[in-house]
Description:
Oligomer: single chain
Shape: globular
Strand content: 5-15%
Helix content: 40-55%
Radius of gyration: 17 Å
Number of helices: 10
Order of helices and strands: EHEHEHEHEHHHHHH
Number of strands: 5
Structural class: alpha/beta
Amino acid sequence: MTEQTGLKVMVVDDHPMWRDAVARDLAEAGFEVVATAGDGLQAVRRAQAASPDVLVLDLNLPGLPGVRVCKELVGANPALRVLVLSASGEHADVLEAVKSGATGYLLKSASTEELLDAVRRTAAGDAVFTPGLAGLVLGEYRRLATEPAPATADEPGAPRLTERETEVLRLVAKGLSYKQIAERLVISHRTVQNHVQNTLGKLQLHNRVELVRYAIERGLDEG
């Protein structure tokens, strides 16, 4: 039984040949391709019906832009992982996708093996970016940290994080993947995921972007 068996994936792209090829590669690798879509509105409807674990999403879509699709679907279901697969490596596109809730961003020049690995890691909760883009995103996290926070956990009676949750949060803020955090702390990947989910719940945050922003605002990435 392969690691990805049972993982439900949906592919959204307005180019039929590309969309079909990506869906075929994923299916042949053992993923369950539950739906495909060729435009933004169709993507939202079918994703809501099919409930994929990972959405492989192009940004340039007719009807509704990819970032709007991402924002709407992640807003309705924060557990959804979105991997953007785009021909554009423009910084503005990458940052807009991340702000909309995308977990990762891969260029279409990536190999099939890189795509399959990215989908696996995205499903596991890792932030996956084409080399060179991760630093850009971390820099944006830092810039966002200078803006007013959407929520605070410093008020009297606010939930307190455990020592281990704080330790995991600090490493997330430094840009480490869940796998790297697990290796650093000598715990399982699943345990790292559980700590992150517990922390999100306690702080009333919705995704990794907000979590990293929260941590950087409090200087946890500098420790």
